[in-house]
Amino acid sequence: MPEEKSKSSWRNKSTLLSLPEVHSSVPMVTGGAFRRFSAFIGPGYLVAVGYMDPGNWATSLAGGSAFGYTLLSVVLLSNFMAILLQALCVRLGVAGQRDLAQACRDAYAPWVARGLWVMAEFAIIATDLAEVIGTAIALNLLFNIPLEIGVVITALDVFLILWLQGKGFRKLEAVVIALTAVIAACFIVEMIYAQPVLGDLLAGFIPQTDILKNPNMLYLALGIIGATVMPHNLYLHSAIIQTRQVGPTDADKRFAIKMGTIDSTIALTFALFINAGILILSAAAFYTTGQNDVAEIQDAFRLLDPTLGVTFAAVLFAVALLCSGLNSTVTATLAGQIVMEGFIQMRMPAWARRLVTRSIAIIPAVIVSLIYGESGTAKLLVFSQVILSFQLPFAIIPLVMFTSDKVKMNGLAAPKWVTILAWTIAVVVITLNMKLLYDVGTGAVTI
Length: 447
What we know:
The chain is 74% helix and 0% strand. It is built from 20 helices and no strands. The protein has helices at residues 7-11, 33-38, 43-49, 54-67, 72-95, 100-107, 110-143, 147-153, 158-165, 169-194, 198-203, 210-213, 215-228, 231-240, 250-285, 297-308, 313-344, 350-371, 373-403, 416-441.
């Protein structure tokens, strides 16, 4: 099916069927370096949203309350992994002019491509599951809406998607950036009142061998990796970077790769502050006061006010969580379209695609919330992020292979040192996944 580029189709939400229709829809600007860079600001923040979704909250809260600042090193290393891999996504989209799903469909036998598509869909469903639970919890905390009802209400976010899509891609990016700013502001206030010990905080960024020796710590560490380096973001970024108009010359493409990489690096550094902030808040408020079993977001909400000694800490926490869930909704929908169209060339309206994915995610969320209540949803949140860690290699390996190929990259392949680091990341993730499987098999950790 041809992938037409049409700016007008973006503004008509009834005809929006494919993200490639808005490729090259954001014009470049002339002038100084900053003005030219301003045209590239946006995609990185759409990607960064996935690095601070409700799944991150669950893993960071549990890790901070149980192990203090120790897992900050995992947050930091995960962010470095994300920066490198998202830079490769920019290169694939600009130099290869394909998103990751399209590249896989072109390069592999149909049965391999369909297998990768299934893995990508599992990753998106796991991501959506975290958004469903996180948003439902936020609605419960702010408005006392029962969890099971809140889970069903999250299906209505399709109307938010349609409204944003009708406003144009730059406005969509602006809304996402604004919600991200609200999340950051909430955590800045929280951190001021939490008053973490600076020395202990900085020591947490130094990797500890205990992470590998303690199966429960490794389980949370993999959850943090899965929640940070999210598979669907690799598909998303390689597609949305193509919304920028890029000239035909190698110099134009090199400039676009450079600007796109700077945009994503700044945005992901911002996401690092949010993710680290959640864990630091949990460690400072709960671990240091002997409350080492605060794994549920609801428990954190109830304990924040009395622990920090202020009456608005819990509300800020819940507002930030709600903004996080809404933000993640937008990017997960876009990623779902990209994966479906790229792998199997199946075009579906955004609202229909969203309802299908969210319906699949809602079923386990409703069942768990009805049977197990708050503790069950918290465990499901963390488990969904560990699932993402196991899906990562199926996205990382093709990405590294494509971006290291001079032919596929039209002469603009990634530098060798970048490729080596990317392969190292793939090996580390696979090794840690195998270690966790061994720990589960021997009963050292119970999921």
